[in-house]
Amino acid sequence: MTDLDPFRAIDRAADPAAIATALEERGRDARQKRLRLGFLRAIPVRRGDTVLEVGCGTGVILRDLVPMVGAGGRLAGIDPSRTVLAAARRACRGTGITLRDGDGAKLPFTDGGFDVTLAVTVLLHVADPGAVVREMARVTRPGGRVAVQDQDFGAVVVTHPERALTARILDGVVDRLYEEPFSGRRLPGLLREAGLGDVRVRTDVFQDTTLEPYTRTFLERRAANAVRFGLVDAPTAQRWLDGFAPVARAGAFVFTVNYYGAVGVKPGANGRGGAPRTRRRRRARRAGARR
Ligand SMILES: C[S@@+](CC[C@H](N)C(=O)[O-])C[C@H]1O[C@@H](n2cnc3c(N)ncnc32)[C@H](O)[C@@H]1O
Q1: What are phi and psi of 261, to 5 degrees?
Q2: Whose CA is nearest to atom 22 of ligand 1?
Q3: 3-state class of 109 per DSSP?
Q4: What SS3 class is residue 191?
Q5: CA dihedral sign, ordered 19, 24, 30, 31
Q6: Least trusted range by pLDDT, from 65-74, 202-211, 257-266, 280-289
């Protein structure tokens, strides 16, 4: 089942370069950008933070983070795919971002070096998401934040005249493609199991009512996979795809995907989430000024 997910091992996929291009296209989509910036602000990522992104792909999120951490911050990304890392190195040139080849379940970093670790639309694709979250927690400093966000493919809504066919294609494909298609709703539990505290959940909805190119590509991929998995034949898949345009022309199209984000705090030496480093620095400065 899992080998069918191209994000599990991008370099072994039929067209790795096309996956890198698709990640950049998603990155440019204005609604996707608003959605991920909302999540990054909610973590929050602060000026001066040292941040690790696990499964950084082409570096879309790392580039969003550059102005958020400012000149005093440090950004690092890790990904097992050489193809996306090469694209990330081109796209992130001159930003000071450090990029490394590696597996989220075996992070090549010492304990406690990061203020924030995050993984965005990654856990859905890995064999053992718990192992990745535990590693993220290990390399986060006490009081630092571990943040994860994933779609939940049990929460996709789309308007189509053939409801049963739509369910057969959407549910059938995700069951065969992903180890855990309902990854989004599992995230807070994964953080708690990894020993993180103060866990918060945030749900963002990607919504399209006009059948944008991003949505069209999403539905085309689902249709192609439905044929590949023998869920429907090619003419039926085409009929299903053709069914969306009239709905959109009638102004009746709705497509939503829920993105669940969860943020947990690594317990500090006192057993609770410690004060963020910037706050500690400010306090130390104030104490110094008083002396
Ligand atoms: C859907 S992409 C998301 C990329 C990026 N976070 C973004 O939102 O643009 C999933 C990424 O997870 C990476 N990935 C897959 N398995 C991984 C693992 N075991 N450890 C770390 N990253 C992994 C893939 O190579 C891919 O770049």
Answers
A1: -115, 140
A2: 55
A3: coil
A4: helix
A5: positive
A6: 280-289
pLDDT at 286: 46
What are the tokens at 180?
A: 């855990």
Q: How far is CA 94 from CA 45, 66, 70, 75, in A?
A: 21, 11, 14, 13
| Pairing status of strand 140-158 against strand 255-265 | antiparallel
Strands (E), 71-169: 74-79, 98-101, 114-120, 140-158
Tell me the two tokens of residue 68.
């958020």
Q: What's the number of CA atoms in the CB half-sphere (13 Å) around residue 64?
A: 22
Burial of residue 234, with CB atoms counted within 10 A of its CB: 0-12 exposed, 13-18 middle, 19 or more buried: exposed
Q: Do β-strands 74-79 and 50-54 pair in parallel, antiparallel, or remain unpaired?
A: parallel
The tens digit of pLDDT for each residue in 189-245 reads: 999 999 999 999 999 999 999 999 889 999 999 999 999 999 999 999 999 999 999
Question: Which residue, 258, 276, 260, 256, is CA-closest to 268?
Answer: 276
Output the ligand 1 site: residues, CB below 6 A.
7-8, 10, 23, 27, 54-57, 60-61, 79-81, 84, 103-105, 120-122, 125-126
Pocket test for ligand 1, best of 78, 92, 122, 128 (most atoms within 8 A of CB): 122
- Rounded Cα gap, residues 157 and 176, in angstroms: 19
Substitution site in 52, 79, 85, 179 for ligand 1 pocket (most atoms within 8 Å of beta carbon):
79
**Global pTM?**
0.89
Determine the pLDDT at residue 284.
45
